[in-house]
Design brief:
The protein is α/β, with parallel strands linked by helices. It folds into 6 domains: about 170 residues, TIM Barrel; about 130 residues, no CATH class; about 110 residues, no CATH class; about 100 residues, no CATH class; about 130 residues, no CATH class; about 130 residues, Nucleic acid-binding proteins (OB fold (Dihydrolipoamide Acetyltransferase, E2P)). The chain is built from 38 helices and 23 strands. The strands form 5 sheets. A 7-stranded mixed beta sheet has the order 1-2-3-4-5-6-7. The longest helix has 20 residues. It is globular, with a radius of gyration of 33 Å. The relative contact order is 0.06.
Amino acid sequence: MYLNCHSYHSLRYGTLSLDSLIQQALACGVPSLALTDINTVTGIYDFAKACRKVGIKPIVGMEVRQGNRLRYITLAKCRAGIGEICRLITAHNCEGTELPSHAPAFEEVITVYPMANVPEQLRDNEYIGIRPHELNRLIRPEWKKWLHRMVIWYPVTVSGKLEHNLHRVLRAIDQNVVLSKLTEDDYCRTDEVMRPFEDIVAAYGGYPQLVSNTRGVMEQCSFAFDFGTPKNKRHYTDSQEGDIKLLTGLAYAGLKKRYGEKNRPARERVEKELKVIDELGFSGYFLITWDIVRYSNSMGFMHVGRGSGANSIVAYCLGITDICPLELDLYFERFLNLNRKTPPDFDIDWSWQERDVILQYIFDRYGKDHVAFCGTNVEFKYRSIFREVGKVFGLPKEELDALAKNPMEQHDGNAVVKLVQKYGMLLEKYPNQRSMHACGILISEEPITNYTALEMPPKGFPIVQFDMHIAEDIGFEKFDILSQRGLGTINDAVKLIRKNRGIAVDIRDTAISKDEARCNDFLSRGQTIGCFYIESPAMRGLLRRLKCDNYQTLVAASSIIRPGVAQSGMMKEYIFRHNYPDRFEYFHEVFEEHLGDTYGIMVYQEDVIKIAMHFGGLSAADGDILRRAMSGKGRSLSALQRVKDNFFASCARLGHSEELSREVYRQIESFAGYSFCKAHSASYAVESYQSLYLKVYYPLEFMVAAINNGGGFYRTEVYVHEARMSGATILPPCVNKSGYETVLDGSDLFLGLMHLQGLETRLVRLIPEERQRNGAFGSLEDFVRRIPMGIEGVQTLIFIGAFRFTGKAKNELLVQARLLLVNFKPEQRMPLLLREPAKEWSLPQLERSYFEDAFDEIELLGFPVSCSPFDLLQTAFRGDVMAADLVNCHKKQVRMLAYLIARKHVPTKRGVMYFGTWIDVNGGYFDTAHFPDCLERYPFKGGGCYLLLGTVEVDYHFPTLTIHKMAKLPFIPDPRYNHDRDSQYKIHQQIREDVSMTHRAPYPQAHEIGLPRQRLG
């Protein structure tokens, strides 16, 4: 009898999870149940599976609303009906079509109208819903004649008074009003709760015809969905035979190009893979991926193929990836095996500047009716909960900020805050809004609206109404089309090198950047700032600890820094064994045979599969369960737990001791966290080397490209520092030299106008465009005539020194700008045939401090350019030891003076600790550790220079300064405010620092893990 149930997928309306809704139905003896969320089908697939598990017949549909106004309820008679409903709402979401007040002529959909919106005539599949409180209206003749077309309408939205209050809070959040401003039309009735089945039938006892009509409707509806068959586009050609024929031809052509004609191992691997790909029916998936990459190549774009698909030699031969599986001994079964039901993952990266072109090609090539992005459900998070719920209860912004930023134990204890906390905590994990998956695209065989309605986010590409997990569950495999700034940096650097030096660098030739002496030296010393994936403090420290000087070690480093490996203690053990290969024994010969290249340490996902199969004797099917447990689709201990009993039973049959088996399984289990497959690490390593090659041989062009692509791990200032250390002369923005982005002129680096805070982007872009059209600006007056910028913008450009080509002082230019603009009229910007000479004024000479420019730069750019931060210190002391000398100071106490670059927040059992990254006056980087007891007495006080006292700990070639005391050192007073003491130190607060957070505890030490270094039987 429940034709109209809402879950919390009715965003900011429903209060019941799908599980809660179904459990309530089960408790009330409900034999069939309809899920009709508002304008969405997000939950229908999970709902259908969960209902069948408990013996309830699932019915699915949608409640169609225009704002607060309920139009009608739709129920799918079969799977085709879902498509009809989804196409109706898709037209509204994506094309702006107004939802009709009455349903269109559906063929496989039953429509139920509220009494307030009944059409003059009802079609055969249309009914009128009658709520219990409306029954007394049926005695009237105008309604009595429709009894044969009436059904029970008993909506379910809440489960009691508490949830109804929560529902009202959600409605207020949705309406963006305080709770008291809601009207009765904004929220549901209090009786929209699940009742025992018999009670509902009894309530309508006076109208048995409604009961039988409702039963008839529910009997007509069925949702028999086939979850087991693939829903992706099946074939690239018109058949499986055509696909494998084309794939085989492409693979062998690529084989010849990659390996020549006489490489027998490569040919045998290609033959083996093609056979399995064909048997599993994945040829079309490979060809669609190849087609996307082929288009990218035709456009001259650079891409990186990653994911488990990078284990494939066929993918390598097709040019999807640049990873040779033979070179790295990549494990075929990690990529494909006959137990696998889904295609391998191909994660393909493009530059953030080019990704939209690729996306447009995919939508155009495969049809907008068959392509859409995966959606995601954005849940209410701690901060959004307290801001949103606090607003509903009328709290002012200052109190909202305090609630959102502080833990609950620090909140005010007044009654209103307690209400905010009460209802806020109920909203944890509730979906708040739908958004676009970062990269996952679905390409379907049938029109995609057969499965889901589509929505159109601001980005401009349609999204489905479910997430990647549901997509996979119903038979879709997404194509991951990603963007990253690292590739943009490489692309732009190559273009800049060609433009500035006339050198064409073939960066796709991985031979130039895999085993190059200077690059290896930089790598081993951790000189990798700006380089993709290997520039963070943790990664640079790891490279130094490993003395990483080759590609193979870098591949391993890319994986062992991942949380799954690091948190299990494997990273620490790998570092030890890499540095002391003669100080350990393999604790079983299987580890030596299959993990010899990683010293018997499980580093990659496929290492776990190898050990599970070759040591534990598990089947390939169980190995695939392990693979999925460690992949992005199922990272959890629960999937591993299912094979645990099999593992120990098998180990016992093979004669392994219980001690050894338990230790091996402990290591396997730790990989239920995040870890990479080897091919994925190898893809990252290739791109890291490409970045490093450009940094080593073309440092200025590379750093300019890094700055223009938004940097990476650090703020812009750090990349500017790197450019200076590489020989660049750093200059503030200039209207005649800078572009919107940073420009390199010889060794002169002109910072881009985009870095100026407070300037309108449109005008900033106009400056270099106007200069290109009509030549350089001759004077400030010429600039004012040609660029429609107000006095505030012109002043900003003057303060940063953008008119220094005029040879005039800033204060003189400021006076001139005011005189020019005070009576300036827009028509004076018309092009002039004869340009009048600029008017000159005789102005008094004003004294100006050398450091005023530096403080202008801090205010407008966030960092000084004309001098170093160290030059602004009141003290001349620069420390007793420089960063370069720390490696020789093990266990020594030293004093250092340094500029703060970044710090990382890490929780521990004793409190919060930080790891800091700094530069000294010579520009060298070093790292610090700050423990909780020290931080209590000597906390960080924002960006700037600090005096540090600590003890040096050299850990495998990498020094860290453990801090005992530190103090932030004062800069000189701001000379621009000599007559305003209150303002002399305000600008100092704008010196920045990078702060990153983690919720993971520090990596465990070797003694905390107790990993055995001897044979265990």
